[in-house]
Amino acid sequence: SPITTLPDSSQTTTAPRESHFINLALTKTLPIPISGKGIELYLSDGRTIIDGCGGAAVSIIGHGNEEVALQTHKQGLQLAYAHPGAYTTTPAGELCQFLLDGNPHGFEKVFLCSSGSEATETTMKLAKQCAFEKGEPERMHYVSRWQAYHGSTMGAMSMSTNLARKEGFEGLGYPHVSHVSPPYAYQYQKSDETEDQYATRLIQELDDEFKRVGTQKVLMFTAETVGGATAGCITPPTGYFRGVRKLCDKYGILLHLDEVMCGVGRTGTFYAFEQEGIVPDIVTIGKGFGGGYAQIAAVLIHKKVVDVFRKNSKPFNHGHTYESHATACRAALAVQKIVRRDHLIERSAAMGKVLDAELRSQLAPCKSVGDIRGRGTFMAVEFVKCKDTKESFPPELRYGIQVQRFIHDLGVDVYPGAGTVDGIRGDHILIAPPYTVTEEQVRHICSVVRQAVLEMEAVYM
Ligand code: PLP
Q1: DSSP, residue by residue, 244-313
Q2: What ipTM score was computed for the predicted complex, to two decimals?
């Protein structure tokens, strides 16, 4: 098969020079991954690492899938690129059709871009132009949540509240953004509050914020359906998103759900919002969409928004050279066809149940494990110094990051949490393996996590 003519990746065993990539300055002592197969990564020092987080919750079908590599290779030979302003290539058309077929949830149009950050930027501009076309130019303000990550470009960074990622950029970014509390029940639901009352309190806070800004001035509310890397898989209380939807509708504010991390089956349904009984006006997906085989993300736009542009016969005034890139679209389509054919979303739900149960039983003796939460193959473990008071470890200890490094030394990758809602809380790790993970691998990942946590506790507790 033509795939065998591709260059042998084992030739690239030398780490790039530190000066080439600014981020490598942080990781220069780590060996580099040479190849991968399924859930395993093979490092330049001969070690095998079990990928317990799919990179950054990206690899949903595992590494080294030959079907995807072959499809991508063939597309590259046939046509890698055509100007997206002039043409829709076959794979781009097929990928959009895959997403929109049968009109699921009323989405009518797709914008294909190269990253989650671009997807957020696109959504921000789309909302603004939508308001302009509607004759509401005074709408300039976005509301997002604390403990959120929506990307690292200027607009996306303004929407994000990952304090570590914003350090050094104070004063930069889009000025008209404010934030409300996320549904972070473990730390912030009051002990005498029911789930329903907690949801109502959060909705009230959002309503107050919309009113404070001026309901005619707010363009859009953006939230991760299940809060990802910064928050550590925080799931909304029942009724929260129904309340958010109602409020946005009341004031004509667009609802954008960022499912770059939690979408595409990660939580056990293609979109995480399907478990919330609502549909957003705009949803963004990335990461698992290309499964690590292509740098691709998508913005799906509801008919309600499309109709505004249609009415004025106006195109969306936006674009990128590499939007709808043909080989990226072919790779994403190949990944998604495998997901559908092999029922991998159902598998994500089933393996998620195993992961949840294993984490709870294996980490039961761990004194520093305060909370285990998440949905599907999207689980987080939050660490606290004291379970009774939920007091966190001192931030400078970077307990969660130390645990993650320890786990890596033991041959498993998990994702380090970087969250702080108030500069203090949010020490966690994230476990998000490929959906193809086996029960045995889940048990192994959890036992390594347990070993690392117990050894950390022996030192720090
Ligand atoms: N949105 C969410 C929820 C994310 O988790 C991320 C990345 O972690 C992004 C957006 C940004 O995506 P990217 O890193 O592809 O720009």
Answers
A1: HHHHHHHHT-EEEEEETTTTTTTTSSSSGGGGTT---SEEEE-GGGTTTSS--EEEEEEHHHHHHHHHTT
A2: 0.99
